[in-house]
């Protein structure tokens, strides 16, 4: 009876305490604790603090819990701070976040007395009236007075991988303390990873990105008064006026720091992070798409991030997934690889024999050659008279895993890092040591067998080629003669043939590279290889057929498409005069006459108006800029790349922001998070109109003046929606 009463009272008490916390307060005081699913929530409800598990948890580690702060109003888990980065607790029920007797905020696990994590405030500073408050800025502050003004400790001083508006990544000149932001270990593990960003310890007013705290792979360049020399786009005058962003670089006798703030009433969430891929990025939450949009990324060249692809892999710039394992190697952690984190690198499939068991006549290791590369780091110079000697010396030493010979013999021992592939103009090649079973057989056959086989193959190929070409020609001419407006579904092999194996590159747009091709009836076409594409085949066909039905004199015409495995290609009509930007800013010797400029401006407007209002499904372009306007032989403008924004879905934001300068044409609502409508295209069109008239890049002109004027112009009610129409009608 008494025991049941006691347990009843106990559960009631528990219930009450839960009740207390579920009314989420923003303050934790000395006699309270946080456990299980209890949270602190900032007054405006934007941030929450409590136990969490990373969304991208690696399988088999679901007993890892952390204390952290996240955005409370966003459906995508977005952690901005983690207390116990490297030391998880196994379950939140037996763990507590409390204020200890000495006034520190501590995390206790498994009912133990010794904390797993503590704020480590010095003794005698904190006392029993200490409390912890989660502020609207996302800052967790330990204080002990009623005005919240004495900061004993704050999470803004304890950086993880996120830089929130208002916090200072500083260097203290008196104590020498440098604050660093350190990336997560991988997407499922907040433990400190290999990449960090901090102020230059040499005292230069610049931030540097480091690998393993030792190798600098990117620097902002010195602060020049209103921007960093290496990042001119990140300056207040380059941002939209009234966007609510302010930047401040402070360098006085006590400390140096940079800080950015976002005007609160904008109701937008902005954060800067150091990603597990080593990239420093600034992201804005966009309500319209319910996703984070990246609007700033450095370094621009992904392959320049030290160790971005880990060991035994190669990095290819301008490729959607830029890391790939070398032949004979496989991803070490395929799960991480899928999450765009390649830093763990690749491992060997078959161990090297390395001359072992040579008495047993087993095959020696062999070499696999990769041409046009940037050689990996940490090469060792070896004395060798020629390439053969270089190879033999490498074979003899079991630690040698690759060599390169360019007059000097270079060896690599144990691991290969930062090998970059497909460097135009590079004469370097590297030979990678592999077990013989990884490479096709040769050498052991008698010479006449080889000759016989080669001879046979040549005869066969010849015959096949003749058959193939006659057949192909027939089919094309048939295919094209249909001429009923339907799209051609090309085979990848055919496109390879038509473009001479993608040899003549016309350019690289935001969605991929474009190559010149010739159809059998001598029609010239532009073949676009889409990058960063993750849609299924069915959806791709549906979207492409929508685009294919759109015909307008000012819109580029789609001839056909190709979809093979993960590859997606689009075949467009070819525009001999190239893109508008070449004529406006490029090396082109003839300047466009006013008549032509007028024809271009109205033509684009007609094309856009058709896309927005006259098609069956209204299409937003989302990326109007001179690079996407093509000109035919008589300078009739054609809008290119329409419909691709939808085709690429969310990844579009990545493409959009990876293009330098695109931001100049972006409507403010991309950043402010308001709904994106066709008006965003109108804004970009307006920006472009300025360039057509002035012949100068919007980027380079006194931006603020232009934009003030432009925003005023666009907001003028009489022009707001009509500007396309009036131009189109005139
Ligand atoms: C908690 O501590 C007890 C004894 O101190 C131990 O037996 C148990 O395994 C611990 N549990 C966890 C999850 O660490
Ligand atoms: C705690 O310390 C602060 C400043 O040192 C002091 O103002 C406050 O009265 C102290 N509170 C208690 C309960 O001792
Ligand atoms: C201090 O913080 C608490 C919790 O957010 C808040 O209720 C209180 O009004 C604050 N006091 C002052 C003087 O700002
Ligand atoms: C950057 O500033 C530091 C110190 O102010 C100076 O020594 C250095 O030469 C500067 N670097 C460049 C590239 O101007
Ligand atoms: C990072 O540096 C430390 C010492 O400076 C070294 O022990 C460690 O192996 C390095 N990590 C990697 C992944 O190379
Ligand atoms: C070769 O064999 C020896 C012992 O038989 C072994 O210790 C060594 O690791 C082997 N080397 C390789 C590359 O497998
Ligand atoms: C080498 O020979 C030993 C026994 O003689 C055998 O155990 C081992 O697997 C062989 N190693 C290789 C790589 O063939
Ligand atoms: C192989 O290379 C390593 C690294 O330079 C060296 O220490 C070792 O002595 C070499 N072994 C032989 C057999 O040459
Ligand atoms: C070979 O490559 C090294 C390293 O890049 C370079 O310093 C050297 O000049 C090259 N030698 C020749 C003969 O090209
Ligand atoms: C975004 O959505 C949130 C929640 O629906 C809302 O509170 C906020 O005002 C919206 N922001 C903008 C800029 O529309």
TrEMBL record:
PROSITE patterns: BULB_LECTIN, PAN, PROTEIN_KINASE_ATP, PROTEIN_KINASE_DOM, PROTEIN_KINASE_ST. It is a single-pass type I membrane protein. It is an enzyme of class 2 (transferase). This is Receptor-like serine/threonine-protein kinase. Residues 354-432 form the Apple domain. The chain crosses the membrane at residues 447-469. GO terms for biological process: recognition of pollen; response to other organism. InterPro entries: Bulb-type_lectin_dom, Bulb-type_lectin_dom_sf, Kinase-like_dom_sf, Pan_app, Prot_kinase_dom, Protein_kinase_ATP_BS, S_locus_glycoprot_dom, Ser/Thr_kinase_AS. Belongs to the protein kinase superfamily. Ser/Thr protein kinase family. SMART domains: B_lectin, PAN_AP, S_TKc. Keywords: ATP-binding, Cell membrane, Disulfide bond, EGF-like domain, Glycoprotein, Kinase, Lectin, Membrane, Nucleotide-binding, Phosphoprotein, Receptor, Serine/threonine-protein kinase, Signal, Transferase, Transmembrane, Transmembrane helix. Residues 1-24 form the signal peptide. The lineage of its organism: Eukaryota, Viridiplantae, Streptophyta, Embryophyta, Tracheophyta. Residues 500-730 form the Protein kinase domain. Its EC number is 2.7.11.1. It comes from the Eukaryota. GO terms for cellular component: plasma membrane.
């Amino acid at each position: 009876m008494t025991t049941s009463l006691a347990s009843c009272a106990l559960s009631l008490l528990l219930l009450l305490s839960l009740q207390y916390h579920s009314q989420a307060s923003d303050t934790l005081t000395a006699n309270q604790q946080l456990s299980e699913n209890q949270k602190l929530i900032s007054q405006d409800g934007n941030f929450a603090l409590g136990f969490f598990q990373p969304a991208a948890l690696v399988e088999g580690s679901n007993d890892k819990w952390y204390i952290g702060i996240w955005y409370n109003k966003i459906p995508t888990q977005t952690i901005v701070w983690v207390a116990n980065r490297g030391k998880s607790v196994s379950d939140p029920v037996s763990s507590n976040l409390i204020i200890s007797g000495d006034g520190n905020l501590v995390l206790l696990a498994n009912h133990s007395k010794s904390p797993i994590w503590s704020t480590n405030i010095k003794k005698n500073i904190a006392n029993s009236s200490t409390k912890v408050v989660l502020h609207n800025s996302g800052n967790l502050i330990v204080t002990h007075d009623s005005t919240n003004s004495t900061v004993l400790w704050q999470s803004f001083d304890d950086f993880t991988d996120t830089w929130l508006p208002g916090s200072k990544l500083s260097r203290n000149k008196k104590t020498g303390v440098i604050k660093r932001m350190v990336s997560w270990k991988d997407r499922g593990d907040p433990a400190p990873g290999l990449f960090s960003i901090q102020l230059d310890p040499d005292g230069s007013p610049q931030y540097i990105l480091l690998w393993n705290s030792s190798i600098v792979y990117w620097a902002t360049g010195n602060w020049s008064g209103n921007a960093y020399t290496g990042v001119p786009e990140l300056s207040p005058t380059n941002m939209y006026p009234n966007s609510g962003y302010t930047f401040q670089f402070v360098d006085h006798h006590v400390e140096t720091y940079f800080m950015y703030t976002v005007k609160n009433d904008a109701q937008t969430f902005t954060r800067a992070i150091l990603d597990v891929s080593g990239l420093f990025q600034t992201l804005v939450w966009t309500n319209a798409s319910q996703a984070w949009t990246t609007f700033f990324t450095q370094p621009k060249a992904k392959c320049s991030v030290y160790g971005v692809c880990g060991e035994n892999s190669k990095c290819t710039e301008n490729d959607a997934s830029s890391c790939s394992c070398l032949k004979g190697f496989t991803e070490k952690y395929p799960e991480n690889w899928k999450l765009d984190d390649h830093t763990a690198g690749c491992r060997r499939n078959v161990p090297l024999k390395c001359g072992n068991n040579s008495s047993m006549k087993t095959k020696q290791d062999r070499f696999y050659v990769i041409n046009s590369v940037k050689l990996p780091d940490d090469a060792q110079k070896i004395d060798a008279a020629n390439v053969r000697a270089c190879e033999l010396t490498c074979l003899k030493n079991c630690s040698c895993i690759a060599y390169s010979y360019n007059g000097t013999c270079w060896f690599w021992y144990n691991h290969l890092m930062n090998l970059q592939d497909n460097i135009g103009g590079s004469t370097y090649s590297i030979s990678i040591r592999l077990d013989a079973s990884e490479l096709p057989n040769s050498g052991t056959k008698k010479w006449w067998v080889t000759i016989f086989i080669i001879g046979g193959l040549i005869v066969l190929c010849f015959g096949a080629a003749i058959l193939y070409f006659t057949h192909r020609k027939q089919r094309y001419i048939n295919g094209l003669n249909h001429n009923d407006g339907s799209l051609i579904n090309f085979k990848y092999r055919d496109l390879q043939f038509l473009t001479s194996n993608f040899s003549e590159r016309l350019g690289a747009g935001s969605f991929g590279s474009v190559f010149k091709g010739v159809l059998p009836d001598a029609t010239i076409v532009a073949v676009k290889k889409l990058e960063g594409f993750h849609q299924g085949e069915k959806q791709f066909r549906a979207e492409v057929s929508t685009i294919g039905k759109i015909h307008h004199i000012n819109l580029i015409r789609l001839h056909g498409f190709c979809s093979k495995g993960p590859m997606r290609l689009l075949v467009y009509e070819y525009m001999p005069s190239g893109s508008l930007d070449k004529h406006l800013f490029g090396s082109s010797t003839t300047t466009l006459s006013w008549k032509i400029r007028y024809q271009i401006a109205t033509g684009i407007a007609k094309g856009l108006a058709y896309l927005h209002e006259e098609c069956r499904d209204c299409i937003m372009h989302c990326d109007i800029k001179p690079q996407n306007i093509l000109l035919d032989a008589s300078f009739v403008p054609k809008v290119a790349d329409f419909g691709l924004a939808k085709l690429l879905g969310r990844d579009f934001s990545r493409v959009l922001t990876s293009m330098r300068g695109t931001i100049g044409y972006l409507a403010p609502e991309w950043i402010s998070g308001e709904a994106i409508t066709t008006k965003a295209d109108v804004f970009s069109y307006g920006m472009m109109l300025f360039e057509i008239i002035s012949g100068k890049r919007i980027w380079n002109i006194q931006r603020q003046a232009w934009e003030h004027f432009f925003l005023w112009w666009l907001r003028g009610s009489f022009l707001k929606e009509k500007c396309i129409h009036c131009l189109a009608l005139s």
